[in-house]
What we know:
This protein has 217 residues and is mainly α.
Amino acid sequence: MNDYIRKAERDLAAATANIGAAEPQLYPSITLSGSISPSFIKQAGSAAGGLTTWSFRPTLNLPIFDGGRLRANAEITRSGAKVQSLVWKQTVLTALEEVGRALSSVHRDAQTVQALRAQVTTTQETLALSIGSYKDGHSSLLDVLDAQPSVATSQASLAQAVQQMAKDYVALNMAIRLQLRWGRDPANFLMKTEPHAVAAMDKRWIISGSPPFSRVS
């Protein structure tokens, strides 16, 4: 989007420059021109020649007959500048809206990831309690088996949420044209911050370091 903003700025600057070129033509102008041709022809009885030729010619330009055409041309250039100003403002507003939407998406994703991370912790603690209770003889193996799917489901949900947050983060960086700070391997970033989520993701992605969100549709 920055490319569109820069183009709009250049178009606005060019339209404004056209006003500066068109409006002076509405007013009278004076052109001064002249020449001096010194002559050093030596005359009899004199030491050297003197100044013999010079000319001075002022020119006054009055836009009497072309006034209507020049005024129309100036009005056209002013209208063009106004249009380019509106185009520039709309381009900037559109860019700001895109960044705002991307920021909202990333913020919403972060809240979702935080909630799912807490859910993963809860299910893991529940599973650990079930295993401990089974070892102590206070519950059956069925209770342990019932707790395991909850852990897997919560980890898968967290993985999807992290994946969506990463995709929206890429979209945000594309909107503001900033370089990603993940380094060359985004998987390293997620493996450090979300190990449980990465464990539930496709292992081919972890090995290759090419996440499925590398291309934003």
